[in-house]
Amino acid sequence: MDFSAKVSTAELADRWLALDKNPKTRKQIQDLVEQGDLKTLEGLLRKPLEFGTAGLRAKMEGGFSRMNCVTVILASQGLAEYVEKTVKNAHERGVVVGNDHRHNSADFGKLTAAVFLKRGFKVYYLEGISMTPLVPFTVKYKEAACGIMITASHNPKDDNGYKVYWDNGAQIIPPHDSGIAACIGKCKDIDTWDVELVNTHPNVINMKAELIDKYYEAMQSLVLDRKLNESTDLAYVYTAMHGVGAPFAARILKELGLKPYVEVAEQQAPNADFPTVVFPNPEEKGALDRAKEKADESGIGLVIANDPDADRFAAAEKQADGSWFVFSGDQLGILLASFALRLAKSHGIDPSKIAMVNSTVSSGMLGEMARIEGFHYRDTLTGFKWMSNELIKMRDENGLVPCFGYEEAIGYLMCPAVLDKDGVSALGCFVQLAAMLKEQGLTAKEYLDSLYIKYGYFASNNFYYICRDPQKIAKIFNKIRYGSDDAQDNSGRTNFHIASNGTTLRYPTQLGGSPVTYIRDLTDGFEVDNLCKLLSTDGGDSAQIVVSSDDKTYVPRFITSPDSQMITFKTAGNGRVTLRTSGTEPKIKCYLEMFGSGDNRDAVIENLNKLVECVDKELMEASKNGLA
């Protein structure tokens, strides 16, 4: 379908109205046509949704740029065509389709299933409301050709999404994303609008109850000490954040032999309007307030939570002074990694056979743990699609056992039966860890402190700026990358002259008062290590280092993307800064970490604060650029 400038806004609107049979979205576009509101129509119609974080995600409205019945059907038609061409015996292997409780999720799921049924696929349809982890579990368990989950996870209530898993049970990665997108782009007509087909078609396999049972059978591998689980008096308050997690969380506790949770009643039932939270994301400030209040009322010192589709996990613990300590995603990651290591050893797995991963914006502490404990560790690009596929690679190529993976955005992979983040299995493991520590007279925070002593203190500060102007974002990153037009502003920068294309990159050589030792730019495809050594041999801070066209020394090991921004710096003072744009939100995300001795934390925090100030004032120039 052509969306180029040669196609007028009116023509795009006509195309839309020719396709759309949903009365609500059709009326929205029709009203805008009658009002002559070309600007709004342009925003809704001109740029079609593209595959980003393993699928689609956007606000629910009419138009090719939004989530709606038309874009879901077209995406399903393109995906079905690509799967037919790419996966052997795809029709017989079938596809998995599930949906959460968001507005329109049920219809989007039924339409997705209908498209595949029309093309002769067998469909494992997870009727009703499902948690996201059940889809990748089913894909792997049934050896399906692919899986689709309709969810926008923890996004605001007006959003929805279309998440795709490949036949290995992991989210899609290149080249599948571009291949699917190309097939979607060729779709001009709609095959079916039959939301009732899932109720009548003989190729529908509705075995959801059995699949849930099989999921919990697989989770039995996570039991560390059943006797302790059954005897502990540890209590905890749980919130489902108005999502789908409550029954799944209740059952994982029961299956592992643990006590039931105390519920936050007003947040337990699925509610697509998320009435008691500003953002339905346990990471956001205030999201756990109701759960903490319930815990205070009940005399309970532990709060656990899932996000709305139950693929993320969060926790908070009451301290001796009465305050609540909310664990960061990295802190939970390290606690759960220590549990995973202990669990693997209890199953007789030698550390030399263990594989763990995290994203490159997550804490480097997992790598230090690997160095000391002897297991295999790799970092990856952001997103579980990369981490899960890396674990698969480590398993298939090196014979390693995938035991754990995490990202700082409270996503955790605890069991290789689910090759994606799974908030329910993470909840079960964390509660077991907390019960074990209680038996030893420790809190989770105290245990975390002991890990800092053992592996070093890693302090992080992750934040984001809101910026809705793509040109401004490009200008900010280009100044970081190329320096200023004013030569005086370029003092303290190193010139990397790329001989192959004549480009000169001018990155800063100091951040937060510490020399830069490492730079990786995944937008421009450039990486350099041991920068201090290079500068000392090439004439000081303003030296020009020529990179020849055939020199692979400076090529990143990660895939590069000129369509998104991502730059990482490391400093001689054990600091790390990663700046990147979001694929789904108007944000510039900043991930900062400082590493130091476990018994000198004040110095680590002081240096981290210097780094934060440097990013805000020098790199982002937040005040000057009007960044919120």
TrEMBL record:
CDD domains: PGM2. It is found in: Cytoplasm. Pfam families: PGM_PMM_I (PF02878), PGM_PMM_II (PF02879), PGM_PMM_III (PF02880). Keywords: Carbohydrate metabolism, Cytoplasm, Glucose metabolism, Isomerase, Magnesium, Metal-binding, Phosphoprotein. Residues 50-186, 214-318, 329-455 form the Alpha-D-phosphohexomutase alpha/beta/alpha domain. It comes from the Eukaryota. Its cofactor is Mg(2+). One of its GO terms (molecular function) is phosphopentomutase activity. GO terms for biological process: glucose metabolic process; purine ribonucleoside salvage. Its main location: cytoplasm. GO terms for cellular component: cytoplasm; nucleus. InterPro entries: A-D-PHexomutase_a/b/a-I, A-D-PHexomutase_a/b/a-I/II/III, A-D-PHexomutase_a/b/a-II, A-D-PHexomutase_a/b/a-III, A-D-PHexomutase_C_sf, A-D-PHexomutase_CS, Alpha-D-phosphohexomutase_SF. The keyword ATP-binding does not apply. Belongs to the phosphohexose mutase family. This is Putative phosphoribomutase. It comes from Zancudomyces culisetae (Gut fungus).
